[in-house]
Write a structure and sequence with these properties.
With 198 residues, the protein is of the alpha/beta class. It contains five helices and eight strands. It has two domains: 5-69, Translation initiation factor 3 (IF-3), N-terminal domain (Ubiquitin-like (UB roll)); 75-157, Translation initiation factor 3 (IF-3), C-terminal domain (Translation Initiation Factor IF3). It has helices at residues 21-30, 52-69, 86-101, 120-133, 161-197, and strands at 5-9, 15-20, 34-39, 46-50, 75-80, 105-111, 138-147, 150-157. The strands form two sheets. It has a four-stranded mixed sheet. A four-stranded mixed sheet has the order 5-6-8-7, with helices on one face. The chain starts with a strand and ends with a helix. Its main location: cytoplasm. Monomer.
Length: 198
């Protein structure tokens, strides 16, 4: 530190006051801690007595937890044709519903071929049918719009991706606990049978 004095904060967060840098360094050595400048732009700069290794470790843990809770929403895409069979429609809307439930956005595309291009109202009706089929999981973010031989519509999920990921994680943990309980019960029965047979 190239300043004559700093505002010192103790290891417990208590305010020590404005002290000379030499005194702050001496206090840090006596307490077997590091002197870390936490607010260099303040006048005088703020320094804190702390274990720098522990500080770095805790910051890394916080960043890791934040990254884990931050789920990135992806844009999925599904293509429909105007003359789609009912079963194919149900299958594809099932995929759309699953993606929306998982917290991802979905771009629904209709590809026009040949004379189909002269009937854009049929494409709009099909996209509205898709939106109605998945109304519980998502809402229309971008209305149907024509782009060359394609018509697009974007559906956004009702809930956030992070909520969906946390729910999925909890469900997996519950299933894992249930499997462990069944396995423990099974091994208990096997042990009882072995004890009876002896």
């Amino acid at each position: 530190m190239r300043v004559p004095e700093v505002r010192l904060v103790g290891p417990g967060g208590e305010q020590v006051g404005v002290v000379r840098v030499e005194d702050a360094l001496r206090l840090a050595q006596e307490a077997d801690l590091d002197l870390v400048e936490v607010a260099p732009d303040a006048r005088p700069p703020v320094a804190k007595l702390m274990d720098y290794g522990k500080f770095k470790y805790e910051n890394a843990q916080k960043e890791r937890a934040a990254r884990r809770n931050q789920a990135n929403t992806q844009m999925k895409e599904v293509q429909f044709r105007l003359k789609i069979d009912d079963h194919d429609f149900e299958t594809k809307t099932g995929h759309v519903a699953r993606w929306l439930h998982g917290g991802d956005k979905v771009k629904v595309v209709i590809v026009f071929r040949g004379r189909e291009q002269s009937r854009p109202e049929m494409g709009v009706r099909l996209l509205e049918r898709v939106a109605e089929a998945v109304a519980e999981q998502g809402t229309v973010e971008a209305r149907p719009r024509i782009d060359g031989r394609r018509m697009n519509m974007v559906l956004a999920p009702v809930r956030k991706k992070a909520d969906a990921v946390n729910e999925m994680r909890k469900r997996r943990e519950a299933e894992r606990d249930e499997r462990r309980a069944r396995k423990a019960e099974r091994s208990e029965r096997i042990a009882e049978r072995a004890a009876k047979s002896e």
